[in-house]
Amino acid sequence: MTVRVGSDPRAVRHRARPGAESAGQLAQRPQVAVVGGGIAGLAAATGLAERGVGVTLIERAPYLGGRVGGWSESLPDGTQVAVNRGFHAFFRQYYNLRQLLARTDPNLDRLTPVEDYPLLDAHGRLDSFRGLPRTPPWSALRFALRSPTFTVPDLMRIDARAAAPLADVSVPEIYHRLDHIDAATFLQRMQFPAAARHLAFEVFSRSFFASPGAMSAAELAAMFHIYFLGSAEGLLFDVPTANYDTALWNPLGRYLSDLGVDTCLDTTVTAVETGGPRTFRLHHRDDAVLDVDAVVLALDTAGLRTLVEASPDLGDEQWRTQIARLRTAPPFLVHRLWLDRPVAAHRAPFLGTGGLAPLDNISVPDRYEHEAATWARRNDGAVVELHAYALPDDLPSHDTHPRPAELTAQLVQRLHEVYPETATARIVAEHTQRRSDCPLFGVGDFAHRPPVHTPHPRLMLAGDLVRIDLPVALMERAATTGLHAANCLLATWELVGHDLYTVPTRGRNTVLRWLAATGNRQT
């Protein structure tokens, strides 16, 4: 299925390998196990099932969506409320993810645009993305020139030679140039203004759940290309109109069921062996086994490491070492509050913060999420979410309770400082999650990051932790690697794959590319 992919005429179409339209044309219908029901696994399952391949989708959680999943819990009064792991920004340049969602929502009506995502620093200065032109570099330049954290002298002091890689990003070349240094050092070499650095870069680097000092400068440069200089889709994004399960994954689960996909929730694969009646044998709950022709592993970092360690038949020594070297980003915490009164009407649905530790984001889900809006309306209250990223590793490891009381108290205090009207509100209920399952894109990691292909031609990896030499990140990297994994398997059976789309694969502005090339020669 193909839908219109955004408004940027320079979006790049990566054509899939041609082949037969359906596995029904083969002598035997291939059977594939997709392990992991997050975005990557759902994309892989969709890409395979749409070509008539038999798919078993196995997810250890009781819901689909992985780290973008949603579920329900009960408040102390018995009220059922929607819960998730915090907001995710569905940018308009997430072409492959949006095409996946369009399978059940052709016009993407279950996504709603965010008018602004203001950024607040410790001095009260507020940056806004509202009303910016979409076309780079004018979007980034206009943002900088109207920002209270930038000044013209600040911009003039930026070292153009050090900043040159930002002007002409291509993948994987940017990793060969910058993956050996951390993002904080790179920004210092650029002489990027310290105050602006907190907002223009640190807020976004922490969305990768790592501080700039722990993150690869190459990842930061790639991100700058995807969101600022490489795409004309704009700097704002969409969010689902309801909790993730309701708006996104339950409909996609039904779509997959209609295609014949067998979905097993609340099921953990404990080992994968080669051999058996087909190519692979999977062991899972109650000592059951599943024999399949191919496998896609779409797990988080810890889950992938654990499964590979328990599956000595898989891969070779080099590949297994790559998996073992994968790292998890520092923990993050999401603290959702149900308050007995609304927040001020002018508050944005999302506010990013810099220099207000431990707070990184305030969300007001009742401004965009149906279930939260219903609760707020019935109770004349508000649903507010506080995010803290890149936390110390020694934070207690509980996902829910007992919660780290000191940290959540600090977050609530920051809420009262930033949104003073909440200081007199009573907390009707609260829900705290501490998670540590996102991949770390650390210094020097790219060279050792495993790609979608593995040493076995019918074993594929997928997920945002996987290397793919395209300009994609976060949820879009998950969707893209999932579809690419499906394409790789489809090619082994000479079945037609699915086209992929990305932002331009190098800097789009000729003048900036020339300046970047000049800076490279002078470096």
Give a brief description.
32% of the residues lie in helices and 18% in strands. The strands form six sheets. The chain has a seven-stranded mixed beta sheet with strand order 9-8-17-18-19-16-20. A five-stranded parallel beta sheet has the order 11-3-2-15-21, covered by helices on one side.
Structural account:
The chain is an alpha+beta fold. The protein is built from 16 helices and 22 strands. The protein has helices at residues 39-49, 95-101, 138-146, 152-157, 160-163, 173-178, 183-190, 194-205, 217-229, 244-258, 301-309, 317-325, 370-379, 405-418, 474-492, 510-522; strands at 12-14, 31-35, 54-58, 70-74, 80-84, 90-91, 111-113, 119-121, 126-127, 237-240, 262-264, 271-274, 280-283, 289-292, 294-297, 332-339, 350-354, 361-363, 382-388, 427-435, 459-461, 500-502. The protein has a 7-stranded mixed β-sheet. Strand 12 and strand 13 (280-283) form a beta hairpin. Helix 1 runs parallel beside helix 15 (474-492), helix 2 (95-101) crosses helix 15 and helix 7 (183-190) packs across helix 9. The longest helix has 19 residues, at 474-492. It is globular.
